[in-house]
Amino acid sequence: MIDEEILLVLKSSNDGYVSGEELSKTAGLSRAAIWKRVESLRNEGYDIEASPHLGYRLLGVPDSLIPSEIKWSLKTRTLGREVISYKKIDSTNTAAYDMAKKGIKEGVVVVADEQTKGRGRLGRTWASPARGGVYLSCILRPAMSPGEVPKLTLAASISVAKTIREVSGLTAVIKWPNDVLINSKKVSGILLEMKAEQDRLDFVIIGIGINVNTPLKLLPKIGTSIAGELGEEISRIKLTQVLLENLEANYRLVTNGDFSKVIDEWKDLTDMLGSRIRITLPNREFEGQAIDVDSDGTLLVRLDNGFIEKIFSGDVRLLR
Amino acid sequence: MIDEEILLVLKSSNDGYVSGEELSKTAGLSRAAIWKRVESLRNEGYDIEASPHLGYRLLGVPDSLIPSEIKWSLKTRTLGREVISYKKIDSTNTAAYDMAKKGIKEGVVVVADEQTKGRGRLGRTWASPARGGVYLSCILRPAMSPGEVPKLTLAASISVAKTIREVSGLTAVIKWPNDVLINSKKVSGILLEMKAEQDRLDFVIIGIGINVNTPLKLLPKIGTSIAGELGEEISRIKLTQVLLENLEANYRLVTNGDFSKVIDEWKDLTDMLGSRIRITLPNREFEGQAIDVDSDGTLLVRLDNGFIEKIFSGDVRLLR
């Protein structure tokens, strides 16, 4: 449990220093109690200087997915206004699903520093080592039908690619439907899960895993991390904030009926259209040219016989 | 717990009578133990004659949703091969959903004689009094995407209408998407609920409530029951069996790619096409003529300005 009140006072100070007396007054606690709380913040990784004359000063915050750090200066209306954080969990999607089933409200985000059972699409695993990843799940309750969920998949994938470009400058590209790649290696995966009736969603969980500062040796061969490509680490907190801001904006485009803007942005962020691809479906495999994304989020592929096939889901490999 | 072994022997007897000795031998129990089990079957509503000279004879079975009675002579491959029965439960759909989430296999059916929190579409309640209804939920795991679920809604509704016609002779008709009416009054409701990823279902629960022998005074004004329309009670067991058989057959049509047959049958079982209807959506209301059901299960409505609108979900009222 992070002492958000004391942090807020330290962060808001103009010259950096806040006297013990001032902290006592604001928090309504004894100076001994303040000292104890500062100690516990230090244990969480906060670098706090204590000067006998000047008072306390915040020198550094840990790059850990602490709710108060994520929420600090976060520019969203609902997404991430409540963050539930775990050092280690089986799967943030599983936890978020169970919370949503119990009625938790839209916008709550579950984050973890490590997943022991990280999951990907189609029952696959998602490597979620403790060092350097961001694993988060957003609980949303859009008024839409189950058939419209591919729109959210596209909205999530452009949010991830755009966020990586913004915070690292690296050219992240989208591979349909929802992988994000840097230099042809996978840096992020997205797993949407939902509970629904025949004609309306109860809730949808958008689960996103990003290899941010993850050492490459902890990742599968086809994977990479932002730090691995950039050569230096970046702030996981900052990335999480930008991601939530982008995701909220794109989510609103979908729910407000502006999905065409999502499609346009998706096309800007993929290098796939025009390319020759191989598509693997549960029951068959074929090649063709990826020509467009349709208004419902499906991929349009021109087969060698000239026919155009609409692809709802499947695994895609670029042949080039 | 019903003693299925003893019932099986009694039902299989040619002349009706089975000696206590024979029953003892088959079950590997003492004659005193057999007597005790027969008593417990009587308490469940079985009418069993015990003649000192001829032995035991089954004269009648209770019209209660007992798994062994449902399974007895049931002609399905998977659906209802396992039945979980409750005298009273909050909601069979809720129970089935939780079982499916824990991994229970396709085909399991949850039935109840009474629901205390019967649910309908869009958060509505479904009156589920103890006397005379059939409330059941089928656990299915089709390899399809969430957007295809409207196909299952149509398959379920034709199964219900056909079953009522077969067992009662009454002209049950379908009102899109999934109400079944007799003489313009609602006799059945269907609620599909699913857990899914973006591109595949994990499972879907098909929940069906039918007012079979329910006294009309226990039902809402707009509702009716089969017995209420027919003037006599029918076997709930028989209806349940025919329903499961029809549902399995139509489910296979959907999963085998023969959905056009489901649509054809749906058109035969509705009196709605060609009629003037009023459609209520969450955000608007309009009138038009119901002209067809599209290949994906959506309703096509011709508006007064000549435009044709595709309706995914909503409330429909026939105006005529």
What can you see in these coordinates?
Two copies of one chain form a homodimer. Chain A has helices at 4-12, 20-27, 31-43, 67-71, 92-101, 149-168, 226-230, 236-255, 259-268, and strands at 17-18, 47-51, 55-60, 83-86, 109-112, 133-140, 173-175, 179-182, 185-197, 201-211, 276-280, 285-293, 299-302, 308-311, 315-318. By secondary structure, the first copy, chain A, is α+β, with helices and mostly antiparallel strands. Chain A has three domains: 4-60, Orthogonal Bundle (Arc Repressor Mutant, subunit A); 67-268, 2-Layer Sandwich (BirA Bifunctional Protein, domain 2); 276-318, SH3 type barrels (Roll). In chain A, the strands form three sheets. Chain A has a seven-stranded mixed β-sheet, sandwiched between helices. A five-stranded antiparallel β-sheet of chain A has the order 14-13-12-11-15, with no helix packed on it. In chain A, a hairpin with a 3-residue loop joins strand 2 and strand 3. The longest helix of chain A has 20 residues, at 149-168. Chain A is elongated, with a radius of gyration of 22 Å. The mean pLDDT of chain A is 91. The interface between A and B is medium-sized, with 27 and 27 residues. Strand 9 (185-197) of chain A pairs antiparallel with strand 9 (185-197) of chain B, so a sheet runs across the interface.
